[in-house]
Amino acid sequence: MLVTALLVVVAGGVWGLGVFDRLSQGGYESPHSEAAEAGEKAERALGSGGDVVVLYTVDEGTIDDPELGERIRGTLAELPGSAVREVTSYWSTPTPALANEERTTGLATVRLVDGKDGKTGSYERIADDLDVAGAEIDVAGTVPMRASMSEHSERDLVMAEAVSLPVVLVLLVVVFGGVVAASLPVLVGGAAVFGSLGLLHLIALFTQVNTFAVNVASLLGLGLAIDYGLFVVGRFREELASGGTTGVAVRRAVATAGRTVAFSATLLVIALGGLLLFPQSFLRSLAYGGMASVALAAVVSLSVLPAVLGMLGERVDRLAVPWRRKRRADPEPGRGWYAFASAVMRNPLWTAVPILVVLSLLGAPFLGTQFGTPDERVLPKDDPARQGIERLREEFPTMSGDNVRIVLDGGNAPPERRRVASFASAVSEVPGIGRAHVVGSRDGTVVLRAELETGTFSSRANDAVDGIRSLDAPPNTRVLVGGTTALNLDSLRDTAETLPWVAVLLVGATLVLMFFAFGSVLLPIKAVVLSVLSLSATFGVLTWIFVDGHGAGLINVTPAPMSVGTVVLMASVVFGLSTDYEVFLLSRMVEARAHGADTPEAVRTGLARTGRMITAAALLLIVVTGAFAFSSVTMMRFIGVGMIVALLLDATVVRMVLVPALLRLLGDASWWAPGKLRRLRRRVGVSGAGTDEGELESVR
Question: Considering all CA atoms of the chain, what is the largest pairwise distance in Å, rounded to the nearest integer?
Fold first, then answer.
């Protein structure tokens, strides 16, 4: 089993290294929205839109110098046709809009070929061929920005794993008290991450996969595989300590901790699978990476790890460290987590209410957050692509893409000029819009550009787009509103329409699976409510930092609206992880309850048996995911900081304090279920986490 599994993982991982050549950028917008259609029609009509904008600046003289113009024209003409579709520049078409007032900077726009490696690949083939003697260049545009994001992401991924893995190994040695046991979760994590590359490569053969999918696969695969390995190895050592043979210990560990892993992974895969319902390919890519890594982490934990444990037996404790504590099969009454649980349950109401109030207050800033499409602010301030875009926006605002683009589609015949002029005048009177004017026309299509007088992602800009869309269209003309603001607005609305279905899927799956796991109605409901509360508190903290800008300078990020895709990903992952710890904690409480303990004793025993493992698992996951908090790309830093906040809140305050307090308040009602549901569960044949149906029925 071990040899076969490792051969498959290694072979798949080696082949999966080719996925990096097939990754793409983009996919943050809804592909079938009005704004997307407006962009396509405007590009066909204008024919001069550029994927890359090059700013040529002279130190002396002006850009009208004939020799300079000849060199620039020659350089642009030599760009390979396999990468470039069209080039327009000030020196080939001396349009005033392509130069600044001082004539010290001129623009060249380049339309790229969308080849097998996308426009990013085409840009990378010409990036080093744009320099011209006698002028300095700045490169702007969506494609250079995304190419830079991809480069930073790959570098950050390598750095995060290089930093986190040694730290994780040291922490595991401290937790397990031995090198052999500590190395097993790392083995599972490495196999999960390496194998997930093969799955992503396979997926990339058939559909678009965003480069951030690899980061998500690494983050979740490594973190969860280590957590799952920690649970299984910890339970195996506990069973050995109770006097079981190696075979019995392996079977018992898989039947208890392994079952918890299976439930947890199933919930998380369903949570990430909900991202497939969204129209944006970026979100679907994150789903591919997350689902592949989580599923593989569970499979490796339930196949490779038991095989290794069966081979090792008692040797799992080899290479012990001097401070290793003697393993105990049973918790010690009056000490450690057992005593902590008793203290919490002595005053459960006074414990629960302040925590609920604080979590609600932490979540309050999220009510006023802003959402936006990732722009150049996700890159470091000294990144050339960000600097180029910022300079273009400052010196050539009409070329920056921040304005509203309006397409008047008259079909076979263009709209009458007076009708177009009247419509442009009406657009100019919309609150938040400055001047609107015609920028081009072709084949029955007229394109207008309307200048925004407010921030691209502000509510006033959104209102301006809605105001334009509410205007009466010229006769026999279809009006399409596009541009960055419209793209973001359409994407947000499509996401908002899909989100309730994703929530129903996620909450429904959690309630059903947890009921079959524990046979209780209230436990799944409590788990969902606490997960939502913990999630809102996390996003409140993230809003306070990344959107409102409090302390943003300390972590070197530029305040900006939240990326809705990143928020949806975080929501799915954090919800799944919080349920993960809930399942592990409750499984031991249900076991104790099944063996005759009353509710307070079951809570004390469950927390005493799992408290150390849950806090250790959260700490390890904080190290793995927290390494991304030092990423140079704000989106990954957002995820890293968010995971740190979520895990600190959820694995400590919520699971270790709030859950025991609430269970004490609920009392024996915690384990209640209607007779019909109990019979349904018995017919389905799914036993609880670590118990069998007979034990549960004897408790009832």
Answer: 94
Q: Dihedrals φ, ψ of 186, to 5°?
A: -65, -40
On whether the CB atoms of residues 438 and 452 are closer than 8 A, the answer is no
**Whole-angstrom Cα distance, residue 217 to residue 76?**
40
3-state secondary structure labels for all residues of 18-84: HHHHCCECCCCCCCCCHHHHHHHHHHHHHCCCCCEEEEEECCCCCCCCHHHHHHHHHHHHCCCCCCE
Higher pLDDT, 317 or 589: 589
* β-sheet with 433-442: strand ranges across: 433-442, 445-452, 404-409, 478-483
The token pair that represents 38 in the structure block: 């407006």
Q: What is the DSSP letter of 228?
A: H
Cα–Cα distance, 44 to 497 (Å, whole number): 30
Question: Rounded distance, CA 350 to CA 654, Å?
Answer: 14
Measured CA to CA in angstroms, residue 168 lies from 104, 584, 610, 630 at distances of 54, 21, 19, 17
Each residue of 606-661: pLDDT tens digit?
Answer: 888 888 888 888 888 888 877 778 888 888 888 888 888 988 888 888 888 898 89
Distance CA 175, CA 164 (A): 16
With beta carbons less than 8 A apart as the criterion, state whether 308 and 250 touch.
Answer: no
Are 559 and 24 within 8 A, CB to CB?
Answer: no
Q: Residue 322 carries which side chain, given as an amino acid letter?
A: P
**Mean per-residue pLDDT of the chain:** 82
Please check whether residue 246 is in contact with residue 314, taking contact to mean a CB–CB distance below 8 angstroms: yes
Give the residue carrying structure tokens 């084949």.
443
Of residues 584, 511, 579, the one with CA closest to residue 256: 584
Please count the other Cβ atoms lying within 10 Å of the Cβ belonging to residue 343: 11
Contact 355, 607 (CB under 8 A): no
Phi, psi at 560, each rounded to 5°: -160, 160
- Residue 83 in contact with residue 113, Cβ under 8 Å? yes
Q: What percentage of the chain exceeds 90 in pLDDT?
A: 5
Going by DSSP bridges, is the β-strand pair 445-452/52-57 parallel, antiparallel, or unpaired? unpaired
